[in-house]
Each structure stands twice: as C-alpha cells, then as structure tokens.
Amino acid sequence: MTDRKGPECWLTDMDGVLVHEGAALPGAAEFIDRLIERERRFLVLTNNSIFTPRDLAARLTRAGLQVPESAIWTSALATAEFLRRQCPGGSAYVIGEAGLTTALHEAGYTMTDTAPDYVVIGELRTYSFEAITRAIRLVEAGARLIATNPDVTSPSPEGPLPATGSIAALITKATGARPYFVGKPNPMMFRSAMNRIDGHSETTAMIGDRMDTDVVAGIEAGLETILVLTGSTKAADIARFPYRPDRVLNSIADVIELV
Length: 259
Prior knowledge:
The chain has helices at 28-37, 53-62, 75-86, 98-106, 129-140, 164-175, 188-197, 211-220, and strands at residues 9-13, 19-20, 23-24, 41-46, 72-74, 91-95, 110-111, 118-121, 144-147, 153-154, 161-162, 180-181, 204-208, 224-228, 247-249. By secondary structure, the chain is an alpha/beta fold.
C-alpha cells in the first residue's frame, strides 16, 4: 500500500484496464462516472497511434464508456507535442494513419517526402514497401528517426500483427539509426499527459495492466502506480520484475473507492 495522499489527477491505460476486445470491463463505466462526478482531472492513455481522440471516444462510447474526446491522450499526440517543442514548425515524412498525421498537422508540422527534419513512424493497418524504402533513404540523407511507440506487435482477432517497433527495427537495421520512442514505456508520454491536465507527479496516479510499460514508466515519472490484473500482467508475473507498483488490484472496479 502507498502512503501518498489521495490522487488529484488520474492517468489510465485503455486496453486491458477499461476495455477488452471492444467491451467495457466491469467497473470501467462507474470509474469514469466517478471521475467526472468528482471533477477529477484525468486522461485515458493509449500507445495506439492509428486513431484520433475523436475515433477513440466513439469506440469507447460503443463500449458504454462516456469519455470526452479531450480526455484521451495517444502516443501520436505525445509525439506531436514532443516534436513541436523540439523543432517548432518542422517537417516530417510520416508512415502512419490519421491519428498521427492529424496530430502532427495540428502541431504545425508540414508533411513532405523531400528533405524532412524527421522521419516519423507510427502504426498502420497495411505497411508499404515503397514508403519504408523512402524512409530508409531519408534517414540515410540525414532525417532524424522518431517512432510513436516501441510495440513490435499489435493484437487482432486472427493473431498478432507487426506494429511500430517492428518497422522501426527494419529501418534501424538498414540504416544503423536508432529511433527515439515517445510512447510508453518512455515516461515522456506521462509527463506530456500531466502537462495537458496541469497535473503534478506527487498527486497523480497511473493505472495500467502491464508491468513493463505502464508501471515502469509511471515509476520513472514519479507517479503513484496501480496495476490491475485484467490485462497482460498476472499476479504470478509480478515477482519477475525488479520493481513494484504501489498497489495491485483485481480490476478497475477496485479503484473506484480511491477516487
């Protein structure tokens, strides 16, 4: 158990915490309702860079969760914010879908395949050999390599699909350039999320289902960490890691009383 004061702000992962395969997990709707009722500042986080916050809000609505579009923070948004601060008004060659291109456009970036400042890799449903080849050549010509998140696969009903980390590894193998990953487990994503809601590490909690992304990033960002056992990490797995969350709870339903 933690000896911190009760959190004023909340960050929560989406898949494995609030939803699973498009269905809300028990207690998720009540948890969101409690946050809104008590006017807590919060964000729902995801490493998925395919969808815009509007898309994800609609997906959550279909699952029975009323999450405002403004309360969703993706690795695409975190990447766009990072690049806006690093190189305002820059340019990028992007391998990604609407979630990433929209975020970069709104951050003031120009999309180009001619001498961009950055090559930015996100998740796609279908990867183009031609686009990857172009990215390799641009990196070799001096463009800096950024990736939204290091996940090497993403789930699908048919089985795992290659994801951002796999494509980034291909480009690294071809060029020798290592990408900077903005999304989890980089605590940068949590810090940018806290900036979004004017939160502070001492009074912010992170709820996740993975020790190797949610919990470790939360610890490195100085947050209270809560692991729920409805996703990737099971109780028997925890002892394998050299760090511990502040709390281990069965599900998001057990978090409601902490709000």
